[in-house]
Amino acid sequence: DKGGWSSFMAKEITEQPEAVANTVRGRVSAGTVEIPELAALGAERLQTIDRVIIIGCGTASYAGMIGAYAIEQWARIPVEVQLSHEFRYRDPVLTDRTMVISVSQSGETMDTLMAVKYAIEHGAVTVSVCNSQSATIPRESDAAVYTHAGPEVAVASTKAFTAQITALYLIGLHLGRVRGTIDAQTQADAVQQFELLPEKLREAVESHDQIAQLAHWMADSRSVLFLGRHVGYPTALEGALKLKEIAYIHAEGFAAGELKHGPIALIDHGQPVFVLVPSPRTAPLMHSKVVSNIQEIRARGARVIAVVEKGDTSVLPYADDVIRLPLADVFFEPLLQVIPLQWFALELSTAKGLDVDQPRNLAKSVTVE
Ligand code: M6R
Question: Active-site positions, per UniProt (predicted)?
């Protein structure tokens, strides 16, 4: 049941405030994060972890990339992210001190399942971040951290993505607390961000009308680029994937700093570029770098669509369109920034008369390797 929406994807985009609230529920209290499923592994085991590898495919891998920044920062454990289908071919170094966190909405993705089995055989501690209850991957893993985002029907993942990021952040905060690597204030600040998140997500969902207008003018675009820095980089990759997947438009995401190492040659007159601008309040250095990136591409004729936090006027002279989002700490920005990108893909798909929920050549769950 699409609940009155034109597509499951539209419905699921609007469900993100509740989805994320459901991921957090029962896992925070009195300013601290405690995930019962992780606690069951025993504090000692969590204290000995010296390396985390996050695995997943597609959107799940981008959620993993975003989660990696936060887990490394909060738990002070080196974290790397690998595509599930690449993982075992590199003969990864795994010990009983390695935690392998798999991210999968369906919990049935064969590439990820095979990677998890490989990790189990090689003695790693396996944690599954999964949305579908009692799927194979969480059943096989040592611990299952369900996202509780509710069923996701559209092939293009939306609410599962924001819920996965949330779950990974909670894991980072839990590990940080158990390992004594974050202070009570940092923990309490993050918990407060989680509490404020649903309302901010609701506001971000309201970017729909502005995005619909933008998409109307851009329906003929042959290629769209997305730029971000830090956690904005995987968010850019996710924006590009959405567009390829459901609007069949060539799209690429780049780390903004990488532009000058090659991709800037792509910038030609009228080339649309979405730029995810970090907050000037909480990330002033990154912000100024991204603003210079905008100036560089604008000078070469790009059509710049800047996604900024409300009140950031620094991009106004250089942006053709500005999408304003509520204020949030750096780690929480991707959860908001991805929403206009999801709407954009949906609107371009609709404008081209395509089936938003069932794109060609794709299945919701990829159960072959
Ligand atoms: O069920 P999973 O999260 O394991 O699926 C992984 C990818 O196949 C999935 O995220 C895919 O990239 C989506 N269709 C993206 O929208």
Answer: 364
102-147 confidence digits (pLDDT tens)? 999 999 999 999 999 999 999 999 999 999 998 999 999 999 999 9
- Read off the tokens for 316: 């106004």
Any idea which residue has 């991204």 for tokens? 290
Tell me how far apart the alpha carbons of residues 202 and 17 are, in angstroms, rounded to a whole number.
6
Per-residue pLDDT tens digits for 285-333? 999 999 999 999 999 999 999 999 999 999 999 999 999 999 999 999 9
CA atoms of 333 and 231, how far apart (whole Å)? 8
- Nearest Cα to 45, choosing from 95, 6, 83, 9? 95
Ligand 1 pocket, Cβ-based, cut-off 6 angstroms: 57-60, 104-106, 109, 112, 155-157, 241, 245, 365-366
Neighbours of 149 (CB within 10 A): 28
Which of 2, 244, 289, 364 is an active site residue?
364
How many CA atoms within 13 Å lie on the side-chain side of 60?
A: 28
Which residue CA neighbors atom 11 of ligand 1 most closely?
58
Cα of 241 from ligand 1 centre, angstroms: 10
| Tokens 């769950």 found at | 365
Model confidence, pTM: 0.98
Instruction: Take residue 270 and report the two structure tokens written for it.
Output: 């009228």
- 293/228 Cα distance (integer angstroms): 10
Q: Is 299 exposed, middle or buried (0-12, 13-18, 19+ CB in 10 A)?
A: exposed
The sheet with strand 51-56 has its strands ordered as: 79-83, 51-56, 98-104, 125-130, 143-146
Quick check: ipTM above 0.90? yes
